[in-house]
């Protein structure tokens, strides 16, 4: 065994250990966060937490029921706005776009994806809050919807492109026009993938805080209808975490746990949908 | 795919057997023409010569097409090759029958050389050989085919014996030279027909057992 | 001694001859095809006989698939392609015809089985549904599956996913799907190249039955398959039609030396 071989072997061992350690670090970070949240917030996850309104300032007890409902309403609005635009936009890009126009749309979508969430929040403020002079759930939903669009467009497009050309040709050879082919064969074939893409997109915007700061704003009470400011989980976490009350800190941990739990459930759910088999055979 | 191809093989066999029927009949009729001094029988044989020849061409075309288009294997391949050879033998049998018929026509005007005793026996032996070789083909019967092979020597003996006998007649009476000579030719033709029947029998063994027994050791029993 | 004095009647030939009275299904005249600037077909002209099997053979890249896909205008779905020349289906110009109507009359089966991610029943019914079939769907589906020799194997599992079938069954399903709309012509682009020999034999036998009612054009890189199944064969080389003759003639005494070189394996 000469020197060169020894050098090669030891280099290989060093690199292996280094990369392995980094991978381990990445995984352990998630586990650490989860563990920390569970430890600190787990005790406060009670029935009260999910059903009661926040207690008056200074008092202990109370829950985050309004924040949970608020987040749900915001996500509903975000989907109503973001999903159709994103989905149909993706369909256009994958199936009908001309080369230059598609390129421009894709590029701009990617740019939009890179816009900081707080900037989106300011934009939504200017468009949906200022003209009516008050914060609202609608404005919050709009901001989150705008954040959903780029990913919805791209993931829809990707999954549609993943449908093999042979399926489209088979439909066309039977006499289906272009749009019939897309509607009856391509979209159903890519359906599972598109669904998971939208689910993950939703899970992502569920945790966005910055855009909600100037749109939905926050509320210590129920917010009936759609035109009033509303509480949401991320904003509540923010508010409680920087407050001086211990009780609030604990509740913030609990809320963080709930939010993370939501994201995990969405991710695992998405994986399960995809794992049950892709809708078409990969040739 | 088997169904269509098998159908084609079947058709080929049917046509070969039909041609064989014609050849068999030609042999029988030509010999009867000699034995019975029957001009009409001889003419019947001559008129059928074309049919036999046309059939040979058709079968050869079918063989070529089957080989080119169907890529036959194993027994199918041996069968088709054997059909090609049997086809040729059958046509030659037809030719020999025509020769016999022509001899019959020529003997007509001459007196009968002698009572025909050996000639019917020889012709019966040969006709049965032909019949048996074709039956062996129909039934894929190796044993029957082998039995044909053993009789070839008998046929040769007949020919030699009749040659000596007729030679004697020719030397004793110069008027009989012409008809006796024709009879010698007839025995030669019959012996050739026997050889062709033997060839057919060898081809049947080739199809069934995959063994080429042509030009093999004399004792083929 | 049993004498055969009469010979029974000679049975008729079974090979169907091409009747000269029946007009050809397709008449292709001087077809040229371009992928962008690159020309793929040069002045190809031939006639496709009605209710017979016509095979297209030739080395890879000779243009046989391109030619086939022109017949149902599937080539148009690719960008930057150009077609010149005339293709007539029963005397009608296919390029001025409604393309949906054309594709209903001219069906296609592809190289790899490509059933839709739907049930077996829905796959066969698809063509019927999108073309507004008025009669009983179930009957039509059964009829198609029978024609494709698949009914007995799947009749109890019509609502299972098409992907539960084996490769050979899937290909027959694709044939049934194409047959559902009762096309006059069936185009097959190397339909057996992804299948094992037994399944290939089954599909070849199927073609024999189908051609009674349907004109078939099949592209194959397997010469023996063309020899076994077709009535007419066209040999293409570098986008040009070198020879077009009855199969029995082309494979025994080809007219062109290039054809002979190809089928004897001396090149390609």
Q: Overview of this structure, please?
A:
The complex is a heterotrimer of chains A (283), B (221) and C (268). Chain A has helices spanning 3-41, 47-51, 65-96, 99-114, 117-129, 137-161, 165-173, 178-206, 210-213, 233-241, 246-275. The mean pLDDT of chain A is 88. The two termini of chain A are 47 Å apart. Chain A is built from eleven helices and no strands. With 221 residues, chain B is an all-alpha fold. Chain B contains six helices and no strands. In chain B, helix 1 (2-35) runs antiparallel to helix 2 and helix 1 (2-35) packs parallel to helix 3 (74-107). The longest helix of chain B has 34 residues, at 2-35. In chain B, 40% of the residues are buried. Chain C is of the alpha/beta class. Chain C is 33% helix and 24% strand. The N and C termini of chain C lie far apart (60 Å). The interface between B and C is medium-sized, with 25 and 22 residues.
Question: Which characteristics define this entry?
Answer:
heterotrimer; B: 221 residues; mainly alpha; 6 helices; elongated; C: 268 residues; alpha/beta; 6-stranded mixed sheet; 4-stranded antiparallel sheet; 10 helices; 10 strands; 33% helix; 24% strand; globular
Helix and strand arrangement:
The complex is a heterotrimer of chains A (283), B (221) and C (268).
Chain A: H1 3-41, H2 47-51, H3 65-96, H4 99-114, H5 117-129, H6 137-161, H7 165-173, H8 178-206, H9 210-213, H10 233-241, H11 246-275
Helix pairs in contact in A: 1-11, 3-6, 3-8, 4-6, 5-6, 6-8, 7-8, 8-11, 10-11
Chain B: H1 2-35, H2 39-70, H3 74-107, H4 118-139, H5 142-172, H6 177-209
Chain C: E1 26-35, E2 38-48, E3 53-57, H1 64-71, E4 81-89, E5 92-93, H2 99-105, E6 106-109, H3 120-130, H4 137-147, H5 151-154, H6 167-179, E7 185-189, H7 197-210, E8 215-219, H8 223-229, E9 232-237, E10 240-246, H9 247-252, H10 257-263
